[in-house]
Design a protein that fits this description.
The structure is a single chain. With 132 residues, the chain is of the alpha/beta class. The chain has one domain (7-129): 2,3-Dihydroxybiphenyl 1,2-Dioxygenase, domain 1 (Roll). Helices cover 25% and strands 40% of the residues. It is built from 3 helices and 8 strands. A 4-stranded mixed β-sheet has the order 1-4-3-2. Strands 5-8-7-6 form a 4-stranded mixed β-sheet. It starts with 6 loop residues before the first strand and ends with a strand.
Length: 132
């Protein structure tokens, strides 16, 4: 197949704060951090245990439409994105110990277990675990 997912993005209200949270708390690794002018940076992270060529861009939410969309998702309790984990209960405990605020504790939803937390950058993030 010629179409691949190599990059996806999430809007953040503060790129420096987001980089710190996504690397130091979630455990992602920084891939790129390039000054693009006007106070903005091209920042990407990747999951060390995942595919290193699949990256998440931490996009500034400076565009009013983007900010409105981000705020709307948050206010309605809709996660901006989701990340898979091997052991949801263990990851929940680890993140909770680091001070991460969860809006939904681990919950069974059919065959999948999910938990939802705030990323401190204006987003709700869903963690999920699929059956083995």
């Amino acid at each position: 197949m010629s179409v691949k997912i190599k990059l996806t993005s999430i809007m953040v209200d503060n790129q420096a704060k987001a980089l710190k949270f996504y690397t130091e708390v979630l455990g992602f690794a920084k891939s790129k951090d390039i000054d693009v002018g006007a106070g903005f940076r091209w920042i990407t992270v990747y999951a060390p245990d995942g595919h290193p060529d699949v990256e998440l861009a931490l996009e500034p939410n400076g565009n009013p439409v983007g900010k409105t969309f981000q705020t709307g998702l948050f206010q309605q309790g809709i996660p901006a994105t989701a990340f898979e984990v091997d052991d949801l209960e263990a990851e929940y405990r680890r993140l909770k110990a680091l001070g991460v605020v969860f809006n939904r504790e681990p919950t069974q939803m059919g065959a999948v277990s999910i938990a939802i937390f705030a990323d401190t950058c204006g987003n709700l993030i869903q963690l999920y675990q699929t059956p083995e």
